[in-house]
Amino acid sequence: MFRLIVKKLKPQNKEKVEPQKKEKNYYWIEMGFFTRWTDRSNLLICFDTPEEFRQQFVDTLQARQNDAGECAHKPYALHIILMDFLIHLYDQSIWDMSNKVREIEEHREFQTNEDYPGLHEVARHTAHATETVQVAGNVIERMASECEALAERETDDDAEQAMYERLESLRMHHSMMLGVAARSISNEKRLSNEINLLFNTMAQKDNGVNLQIARATKADGVAMKTIAIVTLTFLPATYVSAILGMNLFSYNPDTHGGHITYSPDLWLYFVVSIPLTAAVLTIWWVWQRREEKAGDLEHGSEKANKSVGTGTWSSRSK
């Protein structure tokens, strides 16, 4: 007794489906088989096989009337007919996956970040398909091993020859199933390439956007620098006009011979402004020096880490 499963993709619906009404685009075919062989009978019971599969199997048995006697009492005679249909079923499943991957490859220039879930969904299907095909290949390989063991125990030459012929048929089916599995693995690799390509393409587009942002930031920096230069250009004149506008100075052409006079309290202005200016400049200088030292320490730490990593790699290489 053995069980085999096949994953099939449903035909794609061209119409847009609302998210709440979206259905699965795949289905499973879970089949079970029970075999029993005696000298007078050969029994094969199939469970949960597709309707067209059962009908084709019966039609094939009826068409092979010359082999009816062999199928009735020879071991693995029915298995060979069964393998023909199973390989066709698996081959069709893998081709559906391959067509889906090919569709993705043909529309790669239209892919966006929103397509990531769909790509990973197809990748999940291809992984399941590869698993099911490999399991089916292992089952056929096991059948071939058992058939070879029976052939070696046969005492009748004709029966032994017939068993070896069925053994060769099983080996051929096993080889065909390995080919189907190889195609399924190829689908996985192709889809992985498409996912990596989309990821790198989106990353490249993001880098382009970041470059545009950097250029815009640089332009803003130039504008701010221009504003600062203009401010510094007019600041001295503004400062002078502010001083002249204070009550510390006075000008009356009718008195003091037409000269500017100043208040005796003018020294207070210099006592306050000069230390305050010096304090501000000193604080700025100290802060600037600390920032430079912190940057030098960080740069030196990065160099030390790189040298340690290089030394470790060199020692391991030796």
From TrEMBL:
GO molecular function, one term: metal ion transmembrane transporter activity
Protein name: Uncharacterized protein
Main location: membrane
Region (Disordered): 295-318
Biased composition (Basic and acidic residues): 295-305
Keywords in alphabetical order: Membrane, Transmembrane, Transmembrane helix
SUPFAM superfamilies xref list: Magnesium transport protein CorA, transmembrane region
Location in or out of the cell: Membrane
Transmembrane domains' residue ranges: 227-246, 266-287
Composition-biased stretches (Polar residues): 307-318
Cellular component terms per the entry's GO annotation: membrane
